[in-house]
Each structure stands twice: as structure tokens, then as C-alpha cells.
Amino acid sequence: MDARYDVIVIGAGAAGLLAAARAGERGRRTLLVERNRKPGVKILMSGGTRCNLTHAATARGIVDAFGAAGRFLHSALAALSPDDLVAMFEAEGLPTKVESTGKVFPVSDRALDVLAALRRMLARSGAELRLGAAVVNIVREAPAGAGFIVHSEHAAYRADKLIITVGGQSYPGCGTCGDGYAWARSLGHRIIPPRPALVPLLSPESWVHQLRGVTLPDVALEMVDAREGRDSFATSDPSHPSTPPVAKASRPWPTERSRTRGSFLFTHFGLSGPAPMDVSRAVTERPHARWQARCDFLPAVSEHDLYERFASEAAANGKRAIVNLLAEWVPRRLAEALMARARLPLDRRAAELSRAERAALVDALKHTAVAISGTLGFKKAEVTAGGVSLDEVDSRTMQSKLLAGLYFAGEILDLDGPIGGYNFQAAFSTGALAGDSV
């Protein structure tokens, strides 16, 4: 049996590294154990190896981004807000920058520099790091309340307090295989069934596959279950009675966070990019629904303005091929696909468009529905939805409400936010609070 510690932290990701550093700074004899041969594997691969540290939002903005579960983060964000996080890294010699999307990255664009900063904090704290130490199981010491014994493949470690920060099941190549759920369950905790989130979407539609590689910087996206009761309808703009009816999207029945807006990528299997990945949790939450991704390819332009643009083009430049006009707004390959979906030949000229054909083009640009058959699963998911029930964790300390001395932080909790640095902020904040509380 190895020497006894005050605190053992299992999992050297974002939450675990900061939890161990904070505990060590407080004078606790701390051991951080990690199954991989290097820490922070997911940090290194995140954000295209740039590491999106957080989002340039207030603490309230972070809470709101997580939906109903966000209120659990109030205390953690009070302990480490987005501004605090940025200041912490900059004090460690890592300057940051805010991109136009609100995402915060290191100026160097190197995730390796983020991990190096965290490792410096850890080393300075006096916490001990053991790599290549896969935990096999965790048991309570006898008598009850005496502490915990953590068994790895080659050793056993004892501690008065335990922080589990092993993540969920996303990107299993990082070592996040979901073993933390079994440990939490063995210690009495309820696990909300894990499912992939922030994951690319599968589509069976061949026209989507044929557009692989086509990207758009700004698409409004909504997930709709086509099986549920909906009223398809068409309306005219009452302030412009001459405008013909334009087909509207059917009445949606959205789940929480099923609408978003952002960049968008067609792939050989379906849809990817920030916007499709943001709404993917709706698909994994209800996998048997008949999902459609309703796409507005020009969210900054109203339907009425689009219709009027077609009409004015017919009057001013009637011989122009309408596909060339569409190609000014969306990539050429998508313009051609939308012409086909509107059942219009590619050589149709602006002056030849009927009112109904103009309406069909507006509908294709603003309301194209893409059938969704599933996701790429945990192997390509950036985060895990589900995990340790928040009802059983004290949000003021991250300590279990069921078992004194047991703490959770990071992705193992039933917390998942949108793309853009929100999930890293939650991991850092909950990890810091756990480390401050042990």
C-alpha cells in the first residue's frame, strides 16, 4: 500500500489538472493519477489543436448557455469566471485572444501551450502526478468515513478525500472510456444515461453527400421531428399584399437547445461544423424521432427581401441566369443543388421566373429540410451529455450529497454546453471549486 494522501484526483484533464493544483496550493498532500502516459490529451486535440479555453461571455452568459442545468454552475463560476480564467492563464505567461465568434484561444494558437501552463501550476502547487496509472476500482476504507482506497493496475493509494474528473465517453481515443460512471454508481450515485453531444450528424440524402466539402459561415438551423403534429402553412406578408405566398417551415416541436446559428459543413456522411454539432444533442436525446434539420442558408436576409431581389433582377437584368445570382449568396455547388430542389433548370433566366418559382427559390434558401438518421456517436463527439446526476452533488462545493469526502468535476457530471469554449469553462470552474473545497 502506497503512502496516504489528503486528496486523490483521478483524471488529468482540464478539470483534474486544475483541481489538483488548487488542492496542492492549499497545502493538501495531493496525488493526481492519469491512465494515459501524458496528461491533458483532450486539451491537446481540442479546437483543432488550438484549445478554445472559454467564451468571451459573462458568468450569466455561461449559465444561460447550458440551459436548465446551467444554474448548477453559479458557485463554480463565482469561484472562476471566464475573466478569472483568462487572467489566470495570462498570469501564467499565456496571452489570449478573442475571435469574432467569441471563442477565446491562446495567442500562439497552440493547445500545447495551454497544457504547459497547467503543468506549471500543478508542479508549483506541490501536487504529485502519476501517469500510466489506470484505476481499476475504488472502495471505501473501513471503518466507514475513514477515506478511500484507489486501486490501479500496479498499486493502491489511500486518501481522505477523492475527486473524480475522468470525463465522459467522448473521443474514447483520449482515454475517456466511461469508467468513472461505474465508480460513481458503486459509490451510490445515479447516472443519467450518457449520450454523444456536439457530434456530426448523419443524413441519408444523396444530394447532401454530393455537396461534401461545401461550407457556409452563417446558417440558422433547427431540429424538427417530422413525425409529430405540425401544420404546414403558407402566408403572405400583410404589409406587401402583392407578394405571393411563401412556403413556411412546418410548426416546430423543439427540444431544449434545438435551434442555433453558425458555420456549417456538408460532408460525405451528412452535416458537420458548429451549427449542426450544436443541435446534435436533440438527436441523441430522442434517437427514434424522424429528425429533420431545417436550414436557413441566408438568415440575415428576410424572405420578403429575397423575393423582391428576384423581381428586381428580372426587371433590370432579365437575361441573367438565376443560378449566377444565387451563387453570389451561397457557394456555387449549393446554388445548383437548390435550383434542383426548386425543380428549376440551371439555365433558367431571371425574366423567365414565375411568381411561384421565385417563391420556391426563397423556400429552398430559407427552409430546406435535410433528413437526419443519426450521429457519428461517441467516437466523434466533443462532449458527453448525461453523467452523474446533478441532484446528488452539492453545487457549492462539488461534494457528493451522498458520501462525504467524494467530489466530482468536469464532464463526468450531467452537464453539456454548446460549442465555443463553454464546456472547457465548466470543466475548469468545477475543477477549481472542487480543489478549493477539499
Structure description:
- The chain has 438 residues and is of the alpha+beta class.
- The protein has two domains: 4-195 and 384-437, FAD/NAD(P)-binding domain (3-Layer(bba) Sandwich), CATH 3.50.50.60; 201-375, no CATH class.
- The protein has 15 helices and 23 strands.
- It has helices at 14-25, 41-45, 59-65, 74-79, 82-91, 111-125, 179-186, 206-210, 274-278, 280-285, 303-316, 322-329, 332-341, 355-367, 422-437; strands at 4-10, 30-33, 54-55, 96-98, 103-106, 128-130, 135-140, 148-152, 156-164, 191-197, 201-202, 215-225, 234-235, 246-247, 259-266, 270-272, 291-296, 368-371, 374-375, 383-388, 393-394, 399-400, 406-408.
- The strands form six sheets. Strands 1, 2, 6, 7, 8, 9 and 23 form a seven-stranded mixed sheet that branches. The protein has a seven-stranded antiparallel sheet with strand order 18-17-12-15-16-11-19.
- Helix 1 (14-25) packs parallel to helix 6, helix 1 (14-25) runs parallel beside helix 15 and helix 11 packs across helix 14.
- Residues 229-255 have low confidence and may be disordered.
Could you outline the blueprint of secondary structure elements for this entry?
Layout: E1 4-10, H1 14-25, E2 30-33, H2 41-45, E3 54-55, H3 59-65, H4 74-79, H5 82-91, E4 96-98, E5 103-106, H6 111-125, E6 128-130, E7 135-140, E8 148-152, E9 156-164, H7 179-186, E10 191-197, E11 201-202, H8 206-210, E12 215-225, E13 234-235, E14 246-247, E15 259-266, E16 270-272, H9 274-278, H10 280-285, E17 291-296, H11 303-316, H12 322-329, H13 332-341, H14 355-367, E18 368-371, E19 374-375, E20 383-388, E21 393-394, E22 399-400, E23 406-408, H15 422-437
Parallel strand pairs: 1-2, 1-9, 2-6, 9-23
Antiparallel strand pairs: 3-5, 4-5, 7-8, 8-9, 10-20, 11-16, 11-19, 12-15, 12-17, 13-14, 15-16, 17-18, 21-22
Helix pairs in contact: 1-6, 1-15, 11-14, 12-13
